[in-house]
Amino acid sequence: MSTDFQQARFALGLRLRELRTEGGLTGRQLAERLGWTQSKVSKLETGRQTATHEDLRAWADGVEQAEAAAELSTRLRAFETQSRSWRRQLASGHRPVQDRLTVEYEQSAVMRAWESSVVVGMLQTADYARHVFETFAELYRSPRDIEEAVNARVRRQELLYRRGKRFHVVLWEAALRARLCPPAVMVAQLDRLSSAVGLDNVTLGIVPFEAALDLPPANAFWIHDERLVVTEDWHAELWLDDPDSIALYLRVWESLNRSAVHGPAAQRVIARCRQSLDAP
């Protein structure tokens, strides 16, 4: 969890406490009124637990200041757009997450991606995507709506062929070699990548292991129209829309792209990885 996220949650907790005291209620009295435990009230006020929008509406009603619900929800949305924990996002499964991402892709004209460990979702085969979703459903103990999530991801790939869209994707060679699926599935996935090199709307770069790097090949991210960055960590997904962060990620992407090979040279790296799957 980012420091900014913690500070925003703490500030929201202070506002909740302020509303409670203005209403002349103790923490115990408010908890009884809402049918909550006193510890939940305490955790929300001290920023140790993230409120839901339902929690905030209940709080506003409980302190008899229903008009404050909109303000509280606005505060919550402001830092939810920055840090979205996987635990909360995946509570209803992987399909809703895919649908929310599709909205951003629909709204974007130029997208840049960096991925160091897996093939980006926009270029995944259905079989490869299925293994990825199964891996993360197990990790996060999330609902196993695997087929629905795969179908949503594959449908989003129709945007690769839509007029007015541009996709600039850079992958580290490690993403082409990570054995997250059986060899036969990986072979088909590498063939899919090879065919993507020739797509009109797609520029695919591969950073070979032997390439000189100005920066370490760290976490994955997408940049949407220089207005939004979506990046991932193990605990959460970050949605960043401030100009400084966007400018930083653009510099990172441009640096990694300078280390990448494209066109026939990228095809040769893909072919090299494919041949390794045939080795005894």
Question: How does the SSE layout of this entry go?
Answer:
Layout: H1 3-22, H2 27-34, H3 38-45, H4 53-62, H5 68-80, E1 83-85, H6 86-89, H7 94-107, E2 110-115, H8 126-140, H9 146-156, E3 166-172, H10 173-177, H11 183-196, E4 202-207, E5 221-224, E6 228-232, E7 236-240, H12 243-258, H13 263-278
Parallel strand pairs: 2-3, 3-4
Antiparallel strand pairs: 1-7, 2-5, 5-6, 6-7
Q: What's the architecture of the largest domain, going by CATH?
A: 2-Layer Sandwich
> Strand arrangement, largest sheet?
1-7-6-5-2-3-4
Write down the overall geometry: elongated
Q: Uncertain segments of ≥5 residues (pLDDT<50)?
A: none
Task: Give the number of helices.
Answer: 13
Summarize the amount of helix as a percent range: 55-70%
Mean pLDDT comes to 92
Q: What portion of residues belong to β-strands?
A: 5-15%
- Could you say which structural class the secondary elements and strand pairing correspond to? alpha/beta
Radius of gyration: 22 Å
Q: Element order, helices and strands?
A: HHHHHEHHEHHEHHEEEEHH
Can you count the beta strands? 7
For the record, what CATH class of the largest domain applies?
A: Alpha Beta
Which superfamily, in CATH terms, is the homologous superfamily of the largest domain? Endonuclease Chain A
Largest sheet: 7 strands, mixed
Q: What is the fold-level CATH name, i.e. the topology of the largest domain?
A: Endonuclease, Chain A
Distance between the termini: 44 Å
User: How many structural domains in the coordinates?
Assistant: 2
